[in-house]
Amino acid sequence: AKKAGAKPLKLLASPWSPPAWMKASGKMCKRGDGLLPEYFEAWARYFVRFAEELEAKKLPLWGFTVQNEPDNLDAAWETCAIPAEEERDFVRFYLGPALERAGFADPPRIIVWDHNYNGMIERARTIYEEPTTAGYVWGMGFHWYGEQLQQNVQYVHDMYPDKHLIFTEGCMEEGVYLGDWRLGEIY
Question: What family, per the record (predicted)?
Answer without folding.
Answer: Belongs to the glycosyl hydrolase 30 family.
